[in-house]
Specification:
The complex is a heterodimer of chains A (about 350) and B (about 280). Chain A has 13 helices and no strands. Chain A is an all-alpha fold and about 350 residues long. Chain A folds into two domains: about 70 residues, no CATH class; about 220 residues, MetI-like fold (Orthogonal Bundle). In chain A, α3 packs across α13 and α6 crosses α7. The longest helix of chain A is centred in the first third of the chain and has 35 residues. Chain B is α/β, with parallel strands linked by helices. Helix content of chain B is about 35%, strand content about 25%. Chain B contains eleven helices and ten strands. Chain B has a single domain, classed as P-loop containing nucleotide triphosphate hydrolases (Rossmann fold, 3-Layer(aba) Sandwich). The chains are: A mainly alpha (about 350), B alpha/beta (about 280). The structure holds adenosine-5'-triphosphate and magnesium ion. Adenosine-5'-triphosphate binds next to α2 of chain B.
């Protein structure tokens, strides 16, 4: 028997050592100290002052330290890193403060009645447990789903036309789609009002609302899908065609499956674009207080309108209702997002 | 083909040894015929009147320096050339005596009969290994009685079966580069092409995988026409029966010389060919 050589322990030698972590921590600690001192001894006041002083002093310390340890290039890298992280913070801060605010104000109104009752028998001053928003949830789901059923094929087919077929009309259509994505939602609402509601039905309905949502959804889905399809390498298209596939079968069996998770993202963005739309729904749906599962007949409620109405009523109870409505809307969109992600990323391997 | 021959000392010996074993004995007639093929990219002339016969049951190697039009040429042979925006061509390519560019030809049928393996392995990322191999059947809407048998047969012939038989449901992308390339070869075999075009199929592979693919080529060559582009002179000498030398002197690429591989490597007629195969330029 020769000597047994022990297998080395698996590690990650590229990650920071405790010593380096200590240095990083002390940079921030130093920066915090500096910011407190400076705010105390100068006339600067407020949270913003702390933040600004902290940012610049940590940047400076990091810069000097990196320069001493590893030279100029690494010092510049430290500066860039500092600005990038502050940019990131500025970007996510509003998102988190919105989420925080919504949860803080919305959770109080949460109760089981929200999901079982509607508002038809409830008045503005009734306590929050009376009535619910099931009519708004069903309305939003029905209208968004109907809009999606039409907008999904149109949007994705438009993207396929732009990236795969690249026909004669590709340039004007691309321009049109871009222009359409800038259409204000109220304009889409007015268009359906004058093109569908007045001349044809003469009555407000959930279907009219979903038509407007569809108009808003298509450009978002088309543009995102186009970007996604452009990322698919041309090699795959060539491989599909070289195996004797027609262009259509190559797109359907190779290109679209390869882009699947991106296309699902496009759909989610489309839904997220319209789920909170209020203006066209105010014009078109009549915003009822009762559960109405028939989009072709009678007014239909929706979460954005529920929220808008409750805020307008102004009593303490209705404002609490509005916040719970916002929370429910956010949770629905989030749940959709997560489940779609999950579905699209299932692996082939068992 | 013949792996027992004594170790050759030079390229021409390899080719000569090989040539003795198969003096066109396997030839079954002309499989594919290029007649005066020219090609352009957005008006730029890159191929100048290539005429070349490819015999069934043989392997033809296309050699020549980078940019001389080898890829462009083989892409005209299965009508992949037209896939590039701005591409134009002139001339005829006869498959079974019929011009594949004749109007009214079903181009998908042509590509079924003339398969292609690309330089970069490109398995379909959304499909498993098994699905990749059988993807041609789906793409071309072909029916097959026994899919499992076909799957095993294609992977076996591509020299990949033993390595993947336990994980046929894994992603195609989970294989190594050399395995992916053999997967792509298996994929093109599944639709039973008459002609197989291979554009530098081993350029990204290690010697082991290269050897496997060369063995695959030798096996396949008895039943189909194979055309292979390669920058590796040893490879051309090892696998091919005929070799064509392409060259561009700044203008469009043209074919300088074609002949049995042994002759091209031992006594080329043109000095430019000689310089190239002996490594004096290119
Ligand atoms: N898509 C394209 N658009 C414009 N010109 C091209 C295109 N593809 C190739 N060419 C030009 O055509 C000529 C021949 O290219 P080709 O790819 O056929 O060369 P090659 O012999 O295969 O070279 P390599 O050995 O490097 O693969 C080159 O001059 C190249 O610049
Ligand atoms: Mg090439």
């Amino acid at each position: 028997m020769s000597t047994v050589i022990a297998t080395p322990k698996p590690g990650k030698p590229w990650t920071a050592t405790p010593q380096q972590r200590l240095i990083t921590a002390s940079i921030y600690l130093g920066a915090v100290l500096v910011s407190f001192t400076l705010v105390a001894i100068t006339p600067m006041k407020g949270k913003l002052a702390y933040f600004v002083v902290f940012f610049f002093s940590s940047l400076l310390i990091d810069f000097i330290l990196s320069y001493i340890q590893r030279g100029m290039a690494s010092a510049k890298d430290a500066i860039a890193r500092g600005f990038v992280s502050v940019g990131m913070t500025l970007a996510v801060l509003p998102i988190f403060s919105i989420l925080f605010e919504v949860v803080k104000r919305g959770y109080k109104g949460l109760n089981i009645n929200l999901f079982t009752k509607d508002m038809s028998l409830t008045s503005v001053n009734d306590p929050i447990g009376n009535g619910g928003l099931i009519h708004a949830i069903t309305g939003t789901i029905i209208m968004v789903a109907m809009a999606l059923i039409v907008a999904m094929p149109i949007g994705i087919l438009t993207a396929i036309y732009l990236t795969e077929i690249r026909g004669k009309f590709a340039a004007p259509i691309k321009f049109l789609v871009q222009a359409m994505s800038g259409v204000p939602s109220i304009v889409a609402g007015l268009f359906i009002l004058s093109a569908y509601v007045y001349p044809i039905t003469g009555a407000l309905s959930g279907f009219a609302g979903s038509l407007a949502l569809m108009i808003l959804m298509i450009p978002t889905i088309a543009r995102t899908s186009e970007e996604v399809l452009l990322l698919i390498p041309n090699d795959l298209r060539e491989a599909g065609v070289a195996l004797g596939g027609t262009q259509w079968r190559t797109v359907a069996l190779v290109v679209v499956p390869a882009a699947k998770s991106g296309l699902v993202t496009a759909l989610i963005l489309g839904i997220a674009r319209v789920a909170g739309e209020t203006a066209p729904l105010v014009l078109l749906t009549g915003g009822g207080e009762k559960v109405n599962l028939n989009p072709f007949d009678g007014p239909m409620g929706s979460l954005p309108i529920y929220i808008w109405k409750c805020f307008g009523q102004g009593t303490e109870e209705s404002i609490a209702r509005a916040w719970s409505g916002i929370l429910v809307l956010l949770v629905i969109v989030l749940a959709l997002f997560i489940s779609a992600r999950f579905l699209s990323e299932r692996k082939v391997a068992k | 083909m013949d792996k027992t021959a004594t170790k050759p000392s030079s390229l021409s010996d390899v080719a000569a040894a090989k040539q003795k074993k198969s003096p066109g004995a396997q030839s079954l007639g002309v499989g594919l015929e290029a007649r005066g093929v020219h090609a352009w990219f957005s008006g730029k002339h890159v191929l100048d009147g290539i005429s070349l016969d490819f015999w069934s049951g043989t392997v033809t190697a296309l050699i020549g320096p980078s940019g001389c039009g080898k890829s462009t040429f083989i892409r005209t042979l299965n009508r992949m050339h037209e896939f590039i925006p701005g591409a134009q061509m002139a001339g005829e390519v006869l498959l079974d005596g019929k011009d594949i560019y004749e109007s009214g030809t079903d181009v998908t049928k042509i590509r079924l009969k003339v398969g292609m393996v690309f330089q970069k392995p490109n398995p379909f990322p959304s499909m498993s290994i098994a699905e990749n191999v059988l993807s041609g059947l789906k793409l071309a809407e072909l029916k097959v009685a026994d899919k499992d048998a076909l799957l095993e047969d294609c992977l076996e012939r591509a020299g990949l079966w033993s390595e993947v038989k336990d994980r046929l449901n894994a992603h195609g992308g989970s294989l190594s580069g050399g395995q992916q390339q053999r997967l792509c070869i298996a994929r093109s075999l599944a639709v039973k092409p008459q002609v197989l075009l291979m554009d530098e199929p081993c350029s990204a592979l290690d010697p082991g995988s290269t050897l496997k693919i060369e063995e695959t080529i030798s096996h396949l060559s008895s039943s189909m026409t194979i055309i292979i582009v390669t920058h590796n002179m040893q490879q051309a000498a090892r696998v091919s029966d005929y070799t064509a030398f392409f060259l561009s002197d700044g203008g469009p690429g043209s074919m300088i010389e074609v002949g049995p591989t042994s002759e091209i490597f031992s006594r080329p007629r043109d000095t430019r060919t000689e310089n190239y195969v002996t490594g004096r330029f290119g």
